[in-house]
């Protein structure tokens, strides 16, 4: 991509809000969001199952896809076919994403691989000169987040984290933040993030790896373990794979590859709550596991068995946020965020924004421009358009690495507190756990030999 113009942030966000109708022109005449294929950036997707295809599918309106990479031959082939059926163009397919990164015709990569792969692929993509769109949650550990921040700064690449509540379903959430900022519930006294619980699993036996799946590479940086699955198949979203497995879709239930519900849904609701509290450049000073249930026994923070899901099934975590405001992260109750203050309370999720302060907007609306002031410009409703406009402006998008990592640190700390079964004191400036060497060891992880980050 050629060197683009550098508009003000308000102009930049205004172009994003317009989506495909709003375009930005680079100095070479590229117009991102225009209908002409020659005016469109060239993308590639790494990790295509479920969300990987979803973000690709949404982005075909704004970008052309030259290549796909996936370690599962069936997933790779079916998605190449889907893209060709939709766009009339066939992407090149790779099992090894590094071959894709060697190409100089690709402007950006979209990463839909499991969480344990995010940091390695992201760093290597940026060092290869690509801008990056990576699905949430961005990291498996806190130190991974610090590394990504370092490489973004070092390379100057644009990096979008796929947290859709800041864009595609953002109207309710941005209005919720605006209500807080305008004092509609007075001083905030408590925030509750309901993020659903999970279920454990039966004992899952080790079986032969399915044909076409490179199991060694799927594991990548994670420890080498047998492939596990039971015959029962998953239905609905994520269907077509075993219901109980340590691979496709169900990897979210294993700490080796993910952070369970705490990171999966927490990356959405804790993000909005942190934004509303004005804490996007800091974090809690204490995280307390009030109650929790783990599906297997743990010793010294690690599961004692390897053939069952091991992430929490139920939990209530209290994070002490700036101003001594408690943020409660719970598996109980309605999925969404409850804000409580000295003058009232309201609830928001993807389907509703309700409560007396919301009802009062009919007779006492927010000041003109209040929502735009929170957002930094007109509110975008498309994550891909936001990313491409950011690429063109050479500015960071609405879901940037730094604010994402700060809120995700709360989720990571919650998981560490559950694994160790104790309260953690956190220094948000040093980004270290205070006085607990064992807990600090969980801020990083060692990659499996042969799958270290190539720097």
UniProtKB/TrEMBL annotation:
It is an enzyme of class 3 (hydrolase). Its EC number is 3.2.1.49. Residues 80-162 form the Gfo/Idh/MocA-like oxidoreductase N-terminal domain. Residues 202-452 form the Gfo/Idh/MocA-like oxidoreductase bacterial type C-terminal domain. It comes from the Bacteria. Gene3D superfamilies: Dihydrodipicolinate Reductase, domain 2, NAD(P)-binding Rossmann-like Domain. Coiled coil: none annotated. Transmembrane segments: none annotated. GO terms for molecular function: alpha-N-acetylgalactosaminidase activity; nucleotide binding. The keyword Transcription regulation does not apply. Keywords: Glycosidase, Hydrolase. This is Alpha-N-acetylgalactosaminidase. It comes from Novipirellula herctigrandis. The gene is nagA_1.
């Amino acid at each position: 991509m050629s060197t683009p113009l550098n508009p003000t942030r308000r102009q930049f966000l205004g172009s994003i809000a317009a989506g495909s109708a709003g375009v930005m022109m680079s100095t070479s005449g590229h117009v991102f969001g225009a209908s002409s294929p020659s005016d469109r950036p060239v993308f590639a997707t790494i990790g295509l199952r479920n969300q990987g295809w979803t973000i690709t599918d949404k982005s075909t309106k704004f970008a052309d896809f030259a290549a796909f990479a996936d370690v599962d031959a069936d997933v790779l082939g079916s998605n190449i076919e889907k893209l060709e059926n939709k766009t009339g163009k066939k992407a090149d397919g790779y099992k090894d994403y590094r071959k894709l990164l060697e190409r100089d015709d690709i402007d950006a990569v979209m990463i839909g691989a499991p969480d344990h792969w995010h940091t390695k692929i992201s760093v290597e993509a940026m060092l290869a000169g690509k801008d990056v769109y990576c699905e949430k949650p961005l990291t498996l550990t806190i130190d991974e987040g610090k590394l990504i921040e370092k490489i973004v700064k070092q390379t100057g690449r644009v990096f979008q984290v796929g947290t859709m509540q800041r864009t595609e379903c953002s109207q309710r959430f941005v209005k919720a933040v605006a209500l807080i900022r305008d004092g509609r519930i007075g001083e905030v006294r408590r925030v509750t993030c309901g993020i659903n619980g999970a279920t454990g699993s039966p004992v899952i036996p080790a079986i032969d790896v399915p044909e076409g799946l490179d199991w060694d590479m799927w594991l990548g940086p994670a420890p080498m373990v047998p492939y596990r699955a039971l015959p029962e198949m998953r239905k609905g979203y994520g269907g077509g794979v075993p219901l109980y497995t340590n691979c496709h879709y169900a990897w979210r239930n294993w700490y080796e590859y993910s952070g369970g519900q705490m990171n999966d849904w927490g990356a959405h609701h804790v993000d909005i709550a942190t934004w509303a509290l004005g804490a996007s450049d800091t974090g809690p000073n204490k995280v307390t596991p009030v109650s929790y249930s783990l599906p297997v026994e743990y010793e010294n923070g690690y599961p004692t068995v390897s053939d069952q899901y091991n992430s929490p099934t139920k939990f209530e975590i209290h994070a002490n946020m700036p101003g001594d405001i408690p943020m409660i992260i719970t598996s109980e109750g309605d999925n969404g965020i409850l804000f409580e203050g000295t003058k009232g309370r309201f609830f928001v999720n993807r389907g509703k924004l309700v409560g007396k302060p919301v009802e009062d907007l009919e007779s006492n609306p927010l000041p003109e421009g209040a929502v735009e002031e929170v957002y930094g410009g007109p509110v975008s409703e498309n994550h891909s358009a936001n990313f491409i406009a950011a690429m063109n402006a050479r500015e960071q998008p609405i879901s940037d690495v730094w604010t994402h990592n700060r809120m995700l640190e709360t989720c990571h700390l919650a998981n560490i507190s559950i694994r160790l079964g104790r309260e953690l004191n956190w220094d948000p400036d040093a980004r270290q756990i205070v006085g607990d060497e064992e807990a600090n060891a969980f801020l990083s992880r060692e990659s499996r030999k042969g799958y270290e980050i190539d720097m």
